[in-house]
């Protein structure tokens, strides 16, 4: 294991969790979006992570690709939420409007989980930094 690989592992997780937080924020911002450029209501987005350790075993020894990466950002396959609002400009002939199927409680739970994961990886980076600094102090003594 290389000396600073813990920084790379935690750094990859920080990058992935930042994208996850940004995706959740986009979902929350579009909870009422009934019309998109592709047509229809906004589709909730979900981030899928993939470990990089398995790929590192097959790569040359100089490759230090450990940690996590974003595999894909996918649309939620669930159908839109239908609400009766005949005054809405996007209402169909029956007065039904298709809204994004986004649950505020689920998004907030995902946001808290992503935030805690980000915080845990920040703590891991700071702990590793402290350990390396202590090792340097011992080496000077």
What do these coordinates show?
The protein has 141 residues and is an alpha+beta fold. The chain has one domain. Helix content is 48%, strand content 16%. The chain contains three helices and four strands, in the order αβαβββα. Strands 1-2 form a two-stranded antiparallel sheet. It has a two-stranded antiparallel ribbon with strand order 3-4. α1 packs antiparallel against α3. The longest helix is centred in the C-terminal third of the chain and has 37 residues. The two termini are 26 Å apart. The model has no long low-confidence stretch (mean pLDDT 89).
Topology:
Elements (H helix, E strand, L loop, with lengths): L4 H25 L15 E7 L1 H6 L9 E8 L5 E4 L11 E4 L4 H37 L1
Which descriptors apply to this entry?
two-stranded antiparallel ribbon; alpha+beta; 3 helices; two-stranded antiparallel sheet; 141 residues; single chain
């Amino acid at each position: 294991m290389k000396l600073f690989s813990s920084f790379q592992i935690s750094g990859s997780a920080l990058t992935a969790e930042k994208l996850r937080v940004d995706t959740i924020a986009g979902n929350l911002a579009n909870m009422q979006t009934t019309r998109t450029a592709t047509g229809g209501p906004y589709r909730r987005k979900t981030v899928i992570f993939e470990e990089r350790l398995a790929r590192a075993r097959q790569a040359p020894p100089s490759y230090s690709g450990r940690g996590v990466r974003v595999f894909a950002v996918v649309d939620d396959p669930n159908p839109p939420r239908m609400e009766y609002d005949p005054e809405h400009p996007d209402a169909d002939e029956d007065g039904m409007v298709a809204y994004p199927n986004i649950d505020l409680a689920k998004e907030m739970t995902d946001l808290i989980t992503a935030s805690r994961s980000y915080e845990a990886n920040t703590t891991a980076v700071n702990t590793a930094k402290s350990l390396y600094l202590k090792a340097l102090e011992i080496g000077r003594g």
